[in-house]
Amino acid sequence: MASDEDHDPSGVERRTYLRGITAAGAASAVGLGGLSAVSGSTQQEAPQQNQPPITAEFCGTFVPGPQVRQCIACVEAQEDCDEVSPLFPLFTDLTGQCFTPDEIPEGADYVTLKAGQFCYVAPVEEGVTTFCLPPGSPDISNATFYECDSDDPQPALMDFKVTCDEITVTTMNIDDGTELTAEVTFLDADGEESTQTFTATVQNNTATFTLPGDLNPTRFILTLNDLVLDDQHVVAQDAPCTPEPPDPPEPEDPRIEALEVTCDAITITTTDIPVGETIFAQVTFVGDIVETYNVPVGADGVAVVPLPGDLDPSFLQIVYDGDILFNANVQAIDAPCAEVPPEPPKPPKPPKKKKKGKKKDKKKDKEKLERKKRAYEKKKRECEKTKKKHEKGRVDEKKLEQKRDAYEKKKREYEKLKCE
To answer: 126 or 98: which carries more pLDDT confidence?
Structure first.
């Protein structure tokens, strides 16, 4: 898949973007002046802050599924991280090469940036508020913060399975008997959208939501009280759920006469758009992958958007001359397009150790010592904050002891490595 721009002999230009492009960024990037602003954090191309931004390192290919799981292997591979716990809120609908959150979650040790189908990881350091990708990378689609060896692991969604009849979720750190809520968007055979809300109770880290069975699920949002655990475009493994594959929703703009969506292409039949004019089609695929295509209108008034074939299109926006002509959920008539279930790529392998002699790699030793130092200093700050809260009666003795033990553990690890 292209990371910047591909030129096709048919005249189609393809560029990788994210679901949600800021109005200013879209106009400068691909001429999508009519796109609305996203609800994610503001992105900066030239961030202004006290400390220079950290450049995240490429660490592998994402794993399909919930956001917290997509790039978690990158954090699990870190030497100073035994147990990994995701932190909230999750950051979605991002764009650009740099990510500047309004606030970094307390206790964060690492952040992962998902860009296209790739993952990047960066340490969270005091005073640094912006994280960027290496030059030439796809744009950022989501960001997730993680804490190592947390004293208070957060609830999380670790896996899900979607069929016509049910959505089954696998959870972590959620007690049995806890109720979860799923808001699901459906398409019927005529392309009419509807949204329904379902509840299910967690038992043994699993909860199952019963669906109507005769509607096509296209998106679901999972919540625990007011906490959003995940927000995903989906397709049922046994699609279509309707007797006939769903048509796209009826276009509101008369310049779009008809739409056909398959795994391999989107065919747009237009009226009153001159031959040779360019239509911009932004396609969101299951897995939070978004591409924008510049498509010329042919002599017959038809514009064809070529698709990868092995990704499921789930949302389509069509823009012409600054006007949004179509903006709705879609599903390929031959869905599912991806392999079912998708084969998750192998997590990145740790670097191989050199076998020659006992000569130490001073650079790696220094980097490891720095990581241990950061972890120790972080636990120290947390312990000091908890001690002040304890003095004010805001936390109990047990919580203070947990923070003190965690601090002492990291201190011993750092001092041991320092003496080697």
So the answer is: 98
Token representation of residue 402: 């947990």
Enclosing domain of residue 63: 17-148
Whole-prediction pTM value? 0.67
User: pLDDT class for 59, splitting at 50, 70, 90?
Assistant: very high
Domain-embedded: residue 139: yes
Buried b (16+ CB within 10 A) or exposed e, 16-46: bbbbbbbeebbeebbebebbeebebbebbee
Enter the tokens of residue 272: 């009153």
Q: Is residue 390 a part of any domain in this protein?
A: yes
pLDDT digit string (tens) for 17-41? 333 332 223 333 333 332 222 334 4
Q: CA 43, CA 93: separation in Å to the nearest integer? A: 11
Q: Cα dist. 338→185, 227, 286, 343 in Å? A: 20, 30, 9, 9
Q: Which residues contact 140 (CB under 8 A, 6 or more apart)?
A: 18, 43, 94, 95, 96, 97, 98, 99, 113, 114, 115, 133
